[in-house]
Amino acid sequence: MSAAADRSRMIQFEDVSKRYARSPDALSGVSFRLDKGEMAFLTGHSGAGKSTLLRLVGLVERPTRGRVEVGGLDLGQLPKRRIPHYRRQVGMIFQDFRLLQDRTVFDNVALPLIVAAAPGADVGKRVRAALDKVGLLRRERALPQELSAGEQQRVGIARAIVSRPPVVVADEPTGNLDPELSWEIMDLFGQLNRVGVTLLIATHDVDLVRRMHYRTLTLRHGHLVEDTGPPVP
Amino acid sequence: MTAARSRPHREPPTEKAPPRRRRHLRLVAAVRAWLSRHAQAALGALGRFLRSPLAAVMSIAVVAIAAALPALLYVLLDNTNRLLTSWEGAGSLTLFLRTEISDGAARKLADQIAKRDDVARVQVIGRGEGLAEFRRLSGFGAALDAMGENPFPAVLVVHARHRDGGGAPATALLEALRQLPEADVAQADQDWVQRFQAFAAVGQRVTGILTALLAAGVLFVIGNTLRLEIRDRHPEIEITALVGGTPAFIRRPFLYLGLWLGLLGGLVGWLLAVIALAAIDGPVSRVAALYQSDFALHGGGFTLFAAMVGAGTLLGLAGAWLAVGRRLGVALPR
């Protein structure tokens, strides 16, 4: 691989497998590469390994075999003390939103900045900028239970992008939303991608994927069976 | 994605300042940020703790009672030891002379005995003095008048000189006093003190064991309180870890919760101990007065306060550390 190719690479899986105790392989020999600023969908049936793959990118799990590289970092070689710093560079979005129910929208979005010890004035500015981007600036004092499902997911997205991570991974972000809201969320992802964020979005909504015209990785029983994008170099 | 990018964003010190000044400003900013983070975590933990007042009061009460009990025992034992030391220091032997020995003969004998190397001083209680004291204390004045003659002997209180600076008076002196032809009975006043000391030593050991058991109890109580808190806040821990919270960041509010629990428990425990000591001080003083002593209970002051609050805080932190340390696995990849 040339130096130029190295510089453009954001996520790279090389022959990655993941096995849980007393279970078949959740992932088996998966290899692919996602370049900087690229957006791709990860599809497959329930249990195909989509969430496992995203958890490997977020370093929630480590692979049983193979090599996962994100932003030039070999995650297998990353020492424990560097893991929190790495995670600050990957925005994660979840199907169930994972918002803190006893905190306001502002506090939920501010969490990644607070854990990174960002200065107070900076926190306010960046949280409001992220909320503005997802159209929730007027709801910053609301609690999550006062919001609709679509709004809660947008809070989740604001939290994922508030620290301006170069990579965002989303696990079934529209799984709990109706089609109209799903489109809104996908439109937001498109906007993020246009400003250079690399996105990997897991979804089983094939119709949505077809209409979005982005690269698609398809998993079946832990194997990567289809990649509509460029082949692994 | 580089290490530089992962660093927290901080306002850079003024670029125009000289390098030493810039370093100093950076250091000041870092210390301020550190203090601010800890203050936020400490106050946040206190606020969260007091948001459930009933649970907070119950947890504090358990720690306070567990802390107050051994503290009270220690204070009482300390007072007992002080009392014993003062009695032991007297180091006296009592020599009851035969009743036919006059007060004058008793004084001569006292002078002879006082010349001994192992005697510090000799106090003479004449027959008349003994009678007068008994009449005053016993209330049997009329009966004594009816007896016609004074039944009390002269008494010599011999204060032994301790060559080694402490301990019971020499057996040799006691034996020598017994051998005197004027002697009726010679007794060492230390026998019961020594027995009492032995009981006090047992009490000290029992208090030590009790303290260790109650300290372990406090650790478990705080550990269990923290365990429940961690269980309630598991989603928050998980999310904080996923957005890049370090184990120290995740652990911090729980450690402060343990610290508050221990500190407030120690403080309330000290108050309980002081109230209990005040309640028993009166009766103790009355007992002391019966023995012509001005003995009063000591303790409950700053030393006890510092010991209880300090020990409570340390136990709180230790309990929290034990509880939190085991449940931070979520912050690390599997």
Helix content of chain A: 25-40%
| Morphology call of chain B | elongated
Our count of helices of chain A gives 8
Q: Write down the domain tally of chain B.
A: 2
> Radius of gyration of chain A from the CA trace?
17 Å
Report the mean per-residue pLDDT of chain A as an integer: 88
Write a structural description.
Chain A is α/β, with parallel strands linked by helices and 233 residues long. Chain A has helices spanning 3-8, 50-57, 83-87, 105-115, 120-133, 149-161, 179-194, 206-212, and strands at residues 9-19, 25-35, 39-43, 65-70, 73-74, 90-93, 167-171, 198-202, 215-220, 223-227. Chain A has a domain at 99-164. Chain A contains 8 helices and 10 strands. In chain A, strands 6-7-8-3-9-10 form a 6-stranded mixed β-sheet, with helices on both faces. In chain A, α4 (105-115) packs across α5 (120-133), α4 (105-115) runs parallel beside α6 and α5 crosses α6. The longest helix of chain A has 16 residues, at 179-194. Chain A is globular, with a radius of gyration of 17 Å. Chain A starts with a helix and ends in a 6-residue tail after the last strand. Chain B has a 4-stranded antiparallel β-sheet with strand order 2-3-1-4. The model of chain B is unreliable at 1-12 (pLDDT under 50). Chain B contains 11 helices and 4 strands, in the order αααβαβααβαβαααα. Chain B folds into 2 domains: 40-85 and 195-331, no CATH class; 92-189, 2-Layer Sandwich (Alpha-Beta Plaits), CATH 3.30.70.3040. The A-B interface holds A 58-62, 70-73, 80, 83-89, 92, 98, 100, 111-112, 115-119, 122, 159, 163, 166-167 and B 1, 3, 5-11, 33, 37, 235-236, 238-247, 249, 331-334.
Give a short summary of the structure.
The complex is a heterodimer of chains A (233) and B (334). Chain A is α/β, with parallel strands linked by helices.
